[in-house]
Design a protein that fits this description.
With 323 residues, this protein is of the alpha/beta class. It folds into 2 domains: 33-122 and 248-317, Bordetella uptake gene, domain 1 (D-Maltodextrin-Binding Protein, domain 2, 3-Layer(aba) Sandwich); 127-246, Periplasmic binding protein-like II (D-Maltodextrin-Binding Protein, domain 2, 3-Layer(aba) Sandwich). 42% of the residues lie in helices and 18% in strands. The chain contains 11 helices and 11 strands. The strands form 2 sheets. It has a 6-stranded mixed beta sheet with strand order 2-1-3-10-4-11, sandwiched between helices. Strands 7-6-8-5-9 form a 5-stranded mixed beta sheet, sandwiched between helices. Residues 1-20 form the signal peptide.
């Protein structure tokens, strides 16, 4: 009778070490989490990511380490996150170029469906600015000045809002402006300040200091609400430009698709708590960043709606990137 129980006893004894090892494993997270920013350091996306990383790390009990992986308008870093192990130790902080660049380049190394949304951070007005040495103070004056000159304009990424709307402005006004693409806003800003590029769309987060100091001059802004700290700058829509100039993009956080549900839930909760912190909201307001927190499902729907809008706009403009 006792021998009939021996196989079960032996199996239990063999399983005991594995069970003990599993129970001894520390819970997630037990090491730093990598937050990939697919644009260079110093730009708005990098600044926003660092604002989020510190409080999220404190909530989760492990630091969130920023890794800037720029290139191809953000697609290189984004694809790297898609292909990362879905263990919660690699996440993505990105802007609307997440869907913009692939639409414009007509190349999809990833799809939004390859990611699990963690949440929406917000949006920001993007003013169209010129170098301070240009003899213009209004958009109407700029259009008159630029006509026939083939002025170079900067874009912080091919296929981005800054690319599409500058091209739309050029097309609508018959300006024949020429795009110069950069790997992020920081290097673009340096070339604007250095006189190598005449104009560009900037973020208040990365370029606000230069705008307020008068080194670059804002003429009009995308979106409908204007720039909170500079209400005198008109919106394109208020100046009579098409309604699509009133659209604003998004800023948010994602994980690879197959991250375990408990891990994803912890990331979602940490981000939600971060977006409730008064210090975070205060620092966002100081950089004219508009907080628009959305949870995962609402953010997923927001991305889908924006992608549909963007595809329609790109088709309307016939926007492409050479090479």
């Amino acid at each position: 009778m006792h021998r009939r129980h021996l196989p079960g006893l032996a199996a239990a004894l063999l399983a005991a070490p594995a069970l003990a090892r599993a129970q001894s494993q520390p819970s997630w997270p037990n090491r730093p989490i990598r937050m990939v920013v697919p644009l260079p350091p110093g730009g708005a996306t990098d600044i926003w990511a660092r604002l989020v990383a510190e409080p999220m790390g404190a909530i989760l009990g492990q630091p969130l380490v920023i890794e800037n992986r720029a290139g191809a308008g953000g697609m290189i870093g984004t694809e790297a996150v898609k292909n990362a192990a879905p263990d919660g130790y690699t996440i993505l902080f990105h802007i609307a170029s997440f869907v913009q660049t692939p639409v414009v380049l007509r190349r999809w190394p990833y799809r939004p469906e390859d990611f699990a949304p963690i949440g929406k951070f917000g949006t920001t007005p993007l003013p169209f600015c010129v170098r301070a040495d240009l003899p213009v103070t209004t958009l109407r004056e700029f259009v008159a000045y630029a006509r026939g000159k083939q002025l170079p304009y900067g874009t912080y990424a091919p296929g981005s809002s800054g690319h599409a709307f500058a091209q739309a402005l050029s097309d609508l006004e018959g300006l024949d402006m020429v795009p110069v693409h950069y790997r992020g806003e920081a290097p673009m800003l340096q070339d604007v300040l250095g006189g190598r590029v005449a104009c560009a769309f900037h973020s208040m987060t990365a370029s606000g200091e230069q705008i307020r100091s008068g080194r670059i001059r804002p003429l009009a802004t995308l979106g409908r609400a204007g720039i909170p700290s500079m209400p005198a700058v008109p919106s394109f829509v208020s100046l009579g430009y098409p309604d699509y100039f009133g659209n604003a993009g998004f800023i948010g956080l994602w994980a690879p698709l197959k991250v375990p549900e408990p891990v994803l839930a912890a990331l979602v909760d940490a981000f939600r708590q971060t977006m409730q912190r008064p210090e975070v909201l205060r620092r966002m307001a100081e950089t004219d960043t508009i907080a628009q927190y959305l949870g995962p499902e609402e953010f997923r729907a927001d991305i889908a709606a924006y992608q549909a809008f963007w595809q329609g706009l790109v088709d309307r403009l016939g926007l492409t990137v050479e090479g």
